[in-house]
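Quick one, T. Sequence first:
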Amino acid sequence: MAGTFEYFLEIAATLFYAISGVRLAAVKKFDWFGAYTIGFVTAIGGGTMRDVFLKVHPFWMLDPWYCIATFAGFLLVIAFKKKLVKIEGTFYIFDAIGLALFVDVGIFKSLELGFPMWVAIIMGTITGAMGGVMRDVFINEEPLVFRKEIYATACIGGGIIYWLVGLIGGDVITQLLTCALFIIFIRFYAVKHNLSFPILHDDD
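Structure tokens:
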């Protein structure tokens, strides 16, 4: 049951992250091929890096539904361009949901392969954040994870929530849901209230 639920989470995460990538590429006025490429890299980048670290075949090479999900995200942005591109907040919505679901997937897969919780949290953070890093690098933006916004820290916090829910006896699905909801809440709250960590200044 948990494995099936995790699979659907990963498909959904791929879709949401593809939408965030294509939407940002549309803002930058990329052509269709460039926009799809950005969406694809955003959706599979973090999971691919995770799978390389875990020494397993990259997830999107084993099931065509991941590539189908990225293409569906591309088509959705084309079909609903006015709503998805012109409304500023839509980027944060799709990015936050994709981020949260991919953290879930990274933690779950790492634990399934027998790695300890601390490794799973790191792999979850990589799964969630690195696709966004690749997206931002490809479109020549400073990656969100390196700005003052609370981003990767939200992933780590979600991983700790996942671990704590397990410690008190919660089942895997409860762990997945609470972890994802925590990350989404933190991202929305941080963006809405402009919360950030102090900037490291080079003061002489």
